[in-house]
Design a protein that fits this description.
- The two termini are about 15 Å apart.
- This protein has a single domain, classed as Leucine Aminopeptidase, subunit E, domain 1, CATH 3.40.220.10.
- The chain is an alpha/beta fold.
- Strand 3 and strand 4 form a beta hairpin.
- It holds the Pfam family Macro.
- Its EC number is 3.1.1.106.
Amino acid sequence: MSLSVEIGDLTRVEADAVVNAANSLLLGGGGVDGAIHAAAGPRLLEACRRLRKTTHPDGLAVGDAVATPAFDLPASWVIHTVGPNLHRGQDDPTLLASCFARSLDVAAELDVRSVAFPAVSAGAYGWPVSDVARIAVATARSWLAGHPDGSPREVRFVVIDERVQHAFDDVLGR
């Protein structure tokens, strides 16, 4: 099992699954969500529309996760998760932890070896990077410890800059 952090472009990461910091509508947006939708191509939006028409007619709940194929991305899967929005008063850290845990649950159901996460809720949703790093790493460590023989085996945090990388490095003890 491995946990790592790197600066990079989540849309170019070679991992079995990438996690999308989606909004509850699942129909694209800004930031990571917009970049993933743009790079994956129009079939991703079609797949998300199908989810809205079938299993998620009211959208995806904060803290939950669901997968679609990755289409034109180098990954095989996109795992969409909705982080809590601090600006809307969603300040419960268990909701943020649930984003990471539920995404790992979905990754395990897909039997993927590697999954790459952004810093969910650290951007436009206003959560402090240090809190996101602490919660993300603690949740991933706990999840991996509870699934010692399962998948995924590799969890990567792919972040946008050195400031975010340093926050994750601090929590990872590097």
